[in-house]
Amino acid sequence: MSNFAKPENALKRAEELINVGQKQDALQSLHDLITSKRYRAWQKTHEKIMFKYIELCVDMRRGRFAKDGLIQYRIICQQVNVSSLEEVIKHFMDLSTKKAEAARSQAQALEEALDVDDLEADNRPEDLMLSYVSGEKGKDRSDRELVTPWFKFLWETYRTVLEILRNNSKLMALYADTAHRAFQFCKQYKRTTEFRRLCEIIRNHLANLNKYRDQRDRPDLSAPESLQFYLDTRFEQLKIATELELWQEAFRSVEDIYGLTCMVKKMPKTSWMAVYYAKLTEIFWISTSHLYHAYAWFKLFQLQKSFNKNLNQKDLQLIASSVLLAAMSVPPYDHTRRASHLELEHEKERNLRMSNLIGFNLDTKIEGRDMLSRSSLLSDLISKGVMTYVTQEVKDLYHLLEHEFLPLDLASKVQPLLAKISKVGGKISSASSVPEVQLSQYVPALEKLATLRLLQQVSQVYQTMSIESLAKMVPFFSFPAVEKLSVDAVKHDFVAMKVDHMKGAVIFSTLGLESDGLRSHLSLFAESLNKSRSMIHPSERKISKLGEMLPSLAEVIDKEHKRLLARKSVIEKRKEEQERHLLEREREEESKRLKIQKITEEAEQRRLASEIEQRRNQRILREIEERELEEAQALLQEAEKRGRKKGKKTVMDGEKVTKQSLMELAHNEQLRERQEMEKRLQKLGKTMDYLERAKREEAAPLIEAAFQRRLAEEKVLHEHEQQQEIELSRQRHDGDLKEKNRLLRILDNKIQFQNKVVESREAEYERLRKERHERIEQILQARKEERESKRKMLFYLSIEEEKLKKLKEEEEARKREVAERRKREEAEHRAKMDEIAEKQRRREQEVEEKRRSELLARTSEVPVTSRPVETPIAPEVAPVVPAVAAPAPGKYVPKFRRAEAQAPPPEPDRWGSGRQDDRAPPPSGGDRWRGGGSQRQPWTSSRNPPRGG
């Protein structure tokens, strides 16, 4: 593991390793830095390091390294700068996606390049063998080599990111975005298996989130933002599941949405609910659950009618027609009529579960069997006014199949209506959740319903009917299909009939009393007569009353409509205001609750940690003491047992028993027992040796006799088997000769056929060889031209490189010459400056000497008075230079004294060094005084001449 003083050094080191091609070492160095506990304080450099680390992991497809690094980086920046983690994860997903797309593009380009007539011409022998053995195409191999590894890495990237972000409340948006990108990946590349795993992963994340609610930074599902993210993810999952036609996974997604809403006790948005019911209609239609499909359509119709203000009359009419046809497509009989008690309980539980899913109703007090049925659905459609929006063809079809009694003309009247309905449909622009509605999908179910109604009505009128007549009455199906429908209807007690194929007749029987059928016939006959009379002789009183009421009724309806619209707008405004106030109050309460909960959780965690630490320490001490006590007691009991067996006393009374003494005693006892055991084993070994030697001496002659007997028996057996083998060989030889003589008759035909096959194959081989030779010649010529052009290009590139190299060398030589000339000029300039400085110093020195000589000359002109001889001055007092008296006329003065008298006094030290040796008087031993009287002149020693001389 590399140790760096700063994280920047690790980044520089990684870049250096990348530049020399050692990406693995660079990745390992960055991984060691990220996982080290020394660099846990977040810095901006950590983000740069993570970007480089992620790039290396993606380039080398090291998903495990990327996951470890992201987990460590989450620990580093979770509480400091969580947005940095978000940026790193986004960069990670973008890089993985780009690499996967690049690999896919490369594979497509390779596939297009290989799209030639003959792929085997340029292939190597091993590639040809691989193609024959494996049987896969060139595209499959290219995908397996190029695309599949990157797609696996991209899928692993999505799983890693979801695993890292699953319990992070601050990055819920990124979690939802990652889930959406993973869904789009599964949709784009048709990855159904990965989609199922992804749904299971997200489902487990939510389950763990509810299971461990005391985790830190856990998303709160009661918060509106968190709920929105989770519901958005589930609805996207539902859409992709239906687009991939994974209906089982789509139904599980619906259950997830329902469970999530039950968990938070809050209804989703209207647009989401529209998508919810639209997908439910598709799921139930695919699963042939027509009843639940119709209920889902009914809820979707109510939702669109109430909340979709852009829905026009045509779209509403089309949706209402779909609702009514879906309800009519439900089989008209009850499947649970003859079911057992257990099946009824299961059906009741299933209906209750489906009612909650379809109605999004959490109330479970209503009986499922009474709530979900075909009759109750049709009555709800009539009471809720759905019949007022359906088309006229659908309305006529409903009255024919549900209220009319026309056993002979039912099919002929239903068939044109079904032909018109099959052409109705189109796109719905104003309803985004249901982009297109086609009524033709209900035609097969309506044909079955019409056939069942015809059989029911015919069974009430006829007792016997020929098969041909019944087949002519049903133009939708053949008679075997009608028979199959009748079997299911008879099974559920909807129709009572038998088919006698020997007589060619259909026999009907009654299910109930005969008076019930007659009563229905008479009532229907009375209603028909009443309608006919009213059409022939209409009532004038009713017409006049209706004419009087029509003008006022239109005004009343208009006023009532306006009043209802105004009331609806007021109610909607009040609802929006109330929801806004409730949302603000919930947010405030939630923030207060979270603060209080956080404070209490922190205090509780500190208290629990301290208590756990204390209990752990106490438990460890107690366990150590108990273990020592148990060991001492075990040793004591073992020693007492051995002492009782041998009649010895192991521990003396009054003797202090300790663990150490007992261990020594037990050790000595074990050594002694081991020695005794070794002696017994040696003695037993000798005894066993003697016994074994005696046994072998006695058994040797017996073994030899048995061996001789066996040799004789095996010799006889061998001779017998050899004789049998000879007989079998002779028989097989005779049979083979007979078979050969029998087959000699067709030898000529065989030779002719063989020659014919060989000649055809030789001709085919010769043709293929010539074609292959021509292709190879063409390929060789093309490769030769390609090599020639490549050789010319390389020659041209080498010449250009030499020119560039020469120019570069000339430029470097020119730069070196300029640098050397500059160095020489600088050296000459420095020499000149040194010479000028030396001249200036000498000039200053000459000026200084000249000034000193002038000062000495001035001081020699001043008269000096004689002094009496005094006691030498103390060393603390600065010495005074003795003044030289002017020479008296006629008296001899030495030449050096005359020069000394004329020289000016020395100037004090300019630099303040405090040196006054030149002006101080010489010591007493080195002076000589000449002359008498009161005037004395010092004699300066030649070893210290005056400075001015």
Task: Give a verbal description of the structure.
The chain is mostly helical and 949 residues long. It contains 27 helices and 7 strands. The protein has a 3-stranded antiparallel beta sheet with strand order 3-5-4. A hairpin with an 8-residue loop joins strand 1 and strand 2. Helix 13 packs antiparallel against helix 14. The protein is extended. The C terminus is likely disordered.
Largest sheet: 3 strands, antiparallel
What's the helix count? 27
Which word captures the global form? extended
Calculate Rg over CA atoms.
Answer: 58 Å
Which helices and strands occur, and which strands form pairs?
Layout: H1 7-19, H2 23-35, H3 44-60, H4 63-77, H5 82-113, H6 125-134, H7 138-165, H8 172-188, H9 192-211, H10 224-243, H11 247-264, H12 270-286, H13 290-307, H14 313-328, H15 341-359, H16 368-371, H17 374-383, H18 392-402, H19 410-422, E1 425-427, E2 436-438, H20 443-461, E3 464-466, H21 467-473, H22 479-491, E4 497-500, E5 505-508, H23 514-536, H24 540-646, H25 659-743, H26 747-860, H27 895-902, E6 928-930, E7 937-939
Antiparallel strand pairs: 1-2, 3-5, 4-5, 6-7
Helix pairs in contact: 1-2, 1-3, 2-3, 3-4, 3-5, 4-5, 4-7, 5-7, 7-8, 7-9, 8-9, 8-10, 10-11, 10-12, 11-12, 12-13, 13-14, 13-15, 18-19, 19-20, 20-22, 24-25
GO molecular function, one term: translation initiation factor activity
Subcellular location: Cytoplasm
GO biological process, one term: translation reinitiation
What would a concise description of this structure say?
It contains 27 helices and 7 strands.
